[in-house]
Design brief:
The complex is a heterodimer. By secondary structure, chain A is mainly α. Chain A is built from 15 helices and six strands. By secondary structure, chain B is an alpha/beta fold. In chain B, helix 5 packs parallel to helix 6 and helix 12 packs across helix 13. Classes of the chains: A mainly alpha, B alpha/beta.
């Protein structure tokens, strides 16, 4: 068990360091950054905001991590958010309870995910193209549901999911933390994680080893659709309305970026959901720096891009190798100290 | 032999470290123009690492490389190519969808008015190929030709680009005898031209046939450099293994085969393999012989469900079963170690431990994970039983040498407790030591009552362990050899579709 925790810590160490660095920058531009207050039965503070505002990206990156681990990608998550928000809003406007609305939205997300999964796993369409279909068509579907308007609602139960608190903590934080922990537990306590990794590394070998790759690939897209639906409901609840055009717009790219910052390879294989979640927090913290520093908003995207480039450079294999060489030359291995010489990696 | 000229390439004290391992420890290598120099060693001895240091694929950590008495330090394979060191790998690194001519001149096509001159390129390609004794149409796509011809094209490209040193990394691994002769005739020509050629292979016969000198590596160190005219195969093998090889093939204990386990009736798939019938009994090894492309691999894949049959039926202990995909086959306790270990066998980035339990876990389903203790127990038991050499069970399997990867794959399937084990080229590309161990293992599994189907291009090997041999040709079963009929001579004549030789059967080991 202790060994297990150690490997996890070593895996997420770069993300933790980067997150600490970005939070420190936040602190430098805004000294009150770490102050948390308890007012009107709710926690307030910039740190809480980062956790709260980061919820949609965090939720998306849970599913996205699994999809990317199978060597896939899901571009449709932003559009699925819009669909799910629209379905939830339409259901409460029709007079259904918030539970029915939530269930309906989640089912819509799962159906979207299953559709993607079938295109990829059964029809063997390349994931980037297969999910592009729904990325484009999804907002149209959402508009059909909302009939072209921004569908507003006042159902307190639904609003609570996006803007409410539980024991003083904003609900979205609890939702993404809960789902992240639950999915991590499921993939790591069962063999699901290993089988997903096997498919991502070498699908042919996996199939020949008797793994049902088709069902597993459909499942990961389904989970991704489910996560996207949850994110869509939160976003809609937060603004008390479903905006088919703007809900989750470009968020698929943030989700992919979170997975990459989390050190997961876009080529599939080994993955860590925790590292992706840290990636999502890093992105949100970068957003926070830009907002807090009062820089002109037209610079926002440029600065964000620069910070992200810096993060990716630190993680690039070339830089890592150079650092490794630097360390190795400072501490050379004495010849003859190791008996078995192994063939090198390909 | 007095050398008229000095060495073309001289390496001194090359070392390379990997995290936790010394891959090369102060290795020297000298190449003279016009010699074929074999590089020998078990898998994991450091042959590939040495080559990669020479070609710049890896940065060496110590030592010097001199080419024509000038020190070089290539940073990439392109750079070493420009300096004069060309490499051809076992898997042809060309583009199958481009034409032969485009493959030869990619990146330096002859231009006319700023556009590629197809006509001139085709003419140049024809001339170049003629030098190598190939009379083929360079306008055809590369994939239209056999692997051997592709291999020669790859050599032609490398020689054109470089022209001082040519490194051949297992160029003959997937070739049959005629094709090997074709490649060897090309090597002879290049030797006469004064190239220094490094030849890496697992086939010792081929080493003695074509090479002048051999350098033997073991555990990252040079054990010796020998002139092959002055040495014997036994001596070389002893140097490679560091121990006297035990008798390579034991005598077969004459045991009675048991009940019929698997029976296939009129089983086949159009365009892949002609319908065939096959029965395999418990406690027997059925060998599948034939040339490359004769349908050995297709037969194995069809029975395992990796390719779906479109006619015929399969029976397991007399009951009809469906084998639509590998999952169904595994459920019936079938197992397949595929021919292409890297692409169809190992899951490279997963640990050795995970690779060993993969098939068992897949059969159990994802929601019923094997307990950690059971996983460790299984993995450790098989590492010990099959003598898999590794630094740690947690290391990615791709870091193991070929022979150890193969053993780990065998472990993966043995862990599922199979009744019917299909092995496709179980000894391809693995070293002599592991080779003997795998053959002994096949024997042991047969004695334990497993039914085995083994496809192999090595006839001596098939003769050694098979109780029956089925000879394939042109995707069709030609002949079945039993008992004393199983000799390499008879297999050859069956492949050649001649009547069986009536010679005395001293060939049956």
């Amino acid at each position: 068990m202790k060994h297990h925790i150690n490997t996890t810590l070593r895996r997420i160490a770069p993300q933790l360091v980067i997150l600490a660095g970005v939070l420190l920058l936040n602190f430098l531009v805004f000294p009150d950054f770490f102050r948390i207050e308890f007012q009107h039965g709710r926690l307030f503070g910039n740190l809480i905001d980062v956790l709260n505002r980061g919820a949609p990206t965090a939720l998306l990156c849970i599913g996205m991590t699994l999809v990317i681990a199978t060597k896939g990608i899901d571009l449709s998550v932003g559009a699925v958010m819009a669909i799910a928000g629209a379905v939830a809003a339409a259901l409460v406007v029709d007079g259904h309870s918030w539970q029915v609305a939530l269930l309906g939205a989640l089912c819509a997300g799962a159906v979207c995910g299953a559709w993607n999964g079938v295109l990829v796993a059964v029809l063997r369409i390349q994931p980037i193209v297969a999910t592009l279909v729904l990325m484009v068509a999804g907002r149209g579907i959402a508009q059909l549901v909302t009939e072209g308007t921004i569908l507003t609602f006042l159902n307190p139960g639904l609003i609570h999911l996006g803007a409410g608190t539980v024991a003083g903590i904003p609900t979205p934080i609890l939702i993404w933390l809960g789902l992240g922990l639950a999915v991590t537990a499921v993939v790591r306590k069962t063999a699901l994680g290993m089988l997903i990794e096997a498919i991502g590394i070498n699908e042919s070998s996996s199939r020949l080893a008797g793994i049902n790759s088709r069902v597993l690939i459909i499942s990961v897209y389904l989970i991704s659709g489910f996560c996207a639906a949850l994110a869509g409901v939160i976003v809609a609840a937060d603004i008390k309305g479903a905006d088919a055009n703007n809900a989750g717009l470009w968020l698929e790219l943030d989700a992919i970026l979170a997975v990459v910052i989390g050190g997961n390879s876009l080529l599939g294989g080994r993955f860590s959901i925790i590292a992706s979640l840290l990636g999502a927090l890093i992105i949100q913290s970068v957003n926070s720096i830009i907002l807090l520093s009062g820089m002109p908003p037209e610079l926002n995207l440029v600065i964000k891009a620069l910070i992200i480039i810096a993060i990716l450079v630190i993680q690039s294999p070339t830089v890592k190798h150079a650092l490794y060489i630097l360390r190795a030359s400072a501490d050379p291995i004495p010849p003859g100290s190791i008996k078995e010489a192994k063939e090198s990696p390909q | 032999m007095a050398r008229a000229t000095g060495p073309v390439l001289e390496c001194k004290g090359i070392s390379k470290f990997f995290p936790g391992a010394i891959a090369l420890d102060a290795v020297d290598l000298t190449l003279y123009p016009g010699e074929v120099h074999a590089l020998l060693g078990e898998n994991g001895a450091g042959k590939s690492t040495l080559i990669k240091c020479l070609t710049g694929a890896y940065r060496r950590d110590a030592g010097t490389i001199e080419l024509d008495n000038r020190e070089i330090s290539p940073h990439s394979t392109q750079e070493s190519q420009k300096l004069g060191i060309g490499t051809v790998y076992q898997e042809v690194n060309l583009l199958p969808n481009l034409s032969v001519a485009e493959n030869l001149f990619l990146g330096r096509q002859p231009m006319k008015h700023g556009l590629i001159s197809q006509r001139r390129m085709l003419a140049m390609a024809s001339d170049l190929l003629a030098e190598f004794g190939l009379a083929i149409n360079p306008a055809e796509p590369l994939s239209a030709y056999s692997v051997a011809v592709q291999q020669v094209i790859a050599i032609a490209r490398a020689v054109e680009l470089s022209g001082k040193v040519l490194i051949l990394d297992e160029p003959t691994a997937s070739l049959d005898r005629d094709e090997v002769d074709l490649v060897f005739s090309v090597i002879e020509k290049l030797k006469a031209r004064g190239l220094a050629i490094v030849f890496i292979t697992h086939f010792l016969d081929q080493v003695f046939e074509i090479s002048d000198r051999a350098t033997i590596l073991r555990n990252g160190r040079i054990i010796g450099t020998k002139r092959l005219a002055d040495t014997t195969q036994t001596e070389v093998i002893t140097l490679m293994l560091g121990r006297q090889l035990e008798a390579r093939i034991q005598d077969r204990a004459p045991t009675e085969a048991g009940d019929v386990l698997v029976e296939l009736r009129n089983y086949g798939r159009r365009g892949v393999i002609e319908p065939f019938g096959l029965t395999v009994r418990k406690g027997e090894v059925v060998g599948l012989a034939g040339l490359l492309g004769s349908g050995r691999t297709e037969t194995a894949n069809l029975i395992f469900g990796a390719i779906q049959a479109d006619q015929g039926e399969a029976l397991l202990e007399g009951r009809k079963i469906s084998l639509k995909n590998p999952r169904e086959a595994v459920a019936h306790r079938f197992a397949l170690c595929p021919e292409d270990r890297k692409n169809d066998g190992i899951v490279g980035d997963l640990s050795v431990r995970e690779n060993i339990i993969l098939a068992l876990q897949a059969r159990q389903g994802w929601f019923r994970p094997l307990p950690r203790a059971k996983i460790n127990e299984l993995a450790e038991a098989y590492v010990k039983a099959l003598d898999i050499r590794l630094a740690s069970l947690d290391m990615p399997i791709r870091l193991l040498s070929g022979g150890n990867q193969q053993k780990a794959l065998l472990a993966r399937w043995l862990a599922t407790n199979p009744a019917f084990l299909i092995l496709d080229e179980p000894t391809r590309g693995i070293d002599v030591g592991a080779h003997a161990e795998i053959i002994a293992l096949i024997e042991r599994l047969r004695e334990d009552g497993l039914a085995l189907l083994v496809a192999s291009s090595e006839m001596e090997e098939l003769v050694a362990y098979s109780t029956r041999v089925i000879v394939l040709r042109d995707r069709r079963q030609m002949r079945e050899l039993k008992g004393d009929e199983i000799t390499t001579a008879n297999i050859v004549s069956a492949i050649a579709d001649e009547p069986m030789a009536n010679e005395p059967m001293e060939g049956a080991v």
